[in-house]
Amino acid sequence: MRAYCWGDAIAAVEGWTYDRQILWTASLMHDFGLTRIPKNTMCFEVEGAEIAREFLERAGMDPEAADLAAIAIILHMRAGVTLADGVESVLLDRATGLDVRGDGFEVADRVRPEVMAAFPRGSFDRHFLGAIEREVAVRPGCESSRLLIDNDLAGWMARSPWSKA
Asked: How many domains does the chain have?
């Protein structure tokens, strides 16, 4: 839920228009693959994107829109997402960076109090970090490894504005 709210806030600041259905569904389903690491056969974001695409099409979403949601889910873990990848992909990438690491924290100033009251972080940091560590343990070649090890996810989270909010 927070990812969608942050994405919407980023779009407003940037003056971008986007497909709300695509961002909403991608935001809701972007970490689904983290909930099933032992069952996954691929990196969590790829596995989750495939599950999301199938679910969304069965639920009646246009296949092209379902593809765009799935692409955004895959790309939210990749470095260097650009508008050429689709505005919803950029919004999900930046929104999850804001939610996890506090990147662009000030962009959400206008909506942060309301969003945090409705969707508090609670023990998000601990649970998210644990899930990423579990994926790296079984799939060290995934983007989670880059995030956890190369980018020092735990340190980044500890230094983020969220740790002081």
From this structure: 1
Q: Residue 5 and residue 23: Cα distance in Å, rounded? A: 10
Give the type of residue at 63.
P
Average pLDDT over residues 33-56: 96
Q: Is 65 helix (H, G, I), strand (E, B) or coil?
A: helix
Q: Report in angstroms the alpha-carbon separations of 70 from 3, 35, 106, 143.
A: 15, 17, 28, 16
Predicted confidence band of residue 129 (pLDDT cuts 50, 70, 90):
very high
Domain assignment of residue 146, yes or no: no
Phi, psi at 31, each rounded to 5° = -110, 15
Specify the DSSP class assigned to residue 16. -
Report which DSSP code applies to 133: H
CB-facing half-sphere around the CA of 152: CA atoms within 13 A: 5
Query: Rounded CA gap, 70 and 100, in Å?
Result: 20
pLDDT of residue 164: 84
Average pLDDT over every residue of 40-52: 97
Look up the domain containing 46 and give its range.
2-122
